[in-house]
Amino acid sequence: KGSQLDPIKKFIKENNVPANVEYKGVAKGKNVIIIHLESLQQFVINKKWKGEEITPNINKFYKDKNTLAYDNFFNQVGQGKTADAEMMLENSLFGLAEGSAMVTDGTTNTFQSMPALMQQNGYSTAAFHGDVASFWNRDNAYKSFGYQYFFSKQYYTLKKGYVSGYGMKDKLFLQQSAKYLEQLPQPFYAKLITVSNHYPYGIEKKNVSIDKWDTGDSTVDPYVQTAHYLDQSIGELLNYLKKTGLYNKSTIMMYGDHYGISNNHKPAIAKILGLKGVTNYDLAMFQKVPFMIHSPGLKGGVNHNYSGEIDVMPTLLNLLGIKTPGAYQFGHDINSKQYNQIVAFRNGDFVSKKYTKYGGDLYLTATGEQVTDETPAQKQEVKKIQDYVNKELEYSDKIINGDLLRFAKLDWFKKVNKSDYSYNMKSA
Ligand code: GP9
Ligand code: MN
Known about the structure:
It contains 12 helices and 18 strands. The chain is of the alpha/beta class. The mean pLDDT is 97. Manganese (II) ion is lined by residues 38-39, 81-82, 257-258. It comes from Pediococcus pentosaceus (strain ATCC 25745 / CCUG 21536 / LMG 10740 / 183-1w).
């Protein structure tokens, strides 16, 4: 009797593509700093409002000669939002169709996660977030992922007005985080999760330095102000990293976790994008989020492959020169010459190089033209993509729901011992 992992192993092997050798190991040995840009969408990159760039600091980083950016990169989250993004980025496994996998399975499941792997490759590992440790069950899931340190709210000096919404204001959070960061043994793998650009986009007057949008949708209009504030906090952090010399010793990756403006705000979205109205195709493209990697010596540029959060781990691993043969990862190196360009959304919709399916409608990805009467040949092509999407979601769910990685034996990975870690400041 074969293992439940066998068909999954077969699927992954059949769809495997060779990682790009030109990028292999170019970031080897560098610190890794991951900056989670809360709710930041790709459309704000290089966009102006009233003559001013919305995200000038991130734009500068995006255009740097050593930054590799991806402008057709999609969020693939479900109800788990931030937690789903974290799950995909650090495991190359999807969140679940319902709920948050980090909450339901993060405590008990076995994972072969990025932090644990990095630790086994000689890195120290730390996560930073200015909310309570228990949100999204991070205090347990991070142990399963192999984080040595988790600097949550209890580790920060909090004065009156330091917190808004889900946690510490980004500028204050990143200032204090940087002080911890520079004390970590190098090389380190660190992730910093911002939160100020989170719905309902509340920001006090003294932090406002750009006008609201004027769509008339009061939920949407202040998004530009919190995005601008997030950008300023990133600018400050990058300056600090340059000052301390860490910038040149690190690979810095930034990504947006998911949309900030939901599909319930179509008239406002149309206004912001300068469209007469929005189609399901426009909404699909609206799911793009920033993804960029900066590393000293890295040959920069903009990669246009249709890709998504599930691909981050394999893409990074190739840059870091870490091999994971036979890994249970559903993503692929986006830089691969044979990268497949199929992006699954959590509900089974997809974007691919040729076709986009969103909200039950089918479009040609290149033009946005709707396909209503599929030819038999088109039907065949679409079915092939849909089958792939359904299978990867199904197999990823099987791994998480069945805790199947407890059966996975790979010689490059040592099983994580959760009891090695304790994040509580008081008991530590
Ligand atoms: C809270 C934060 C928000 O800690 O990460 O999560 P989200 O609501 O975006 O999923
Ligand atoms: Mn989020």
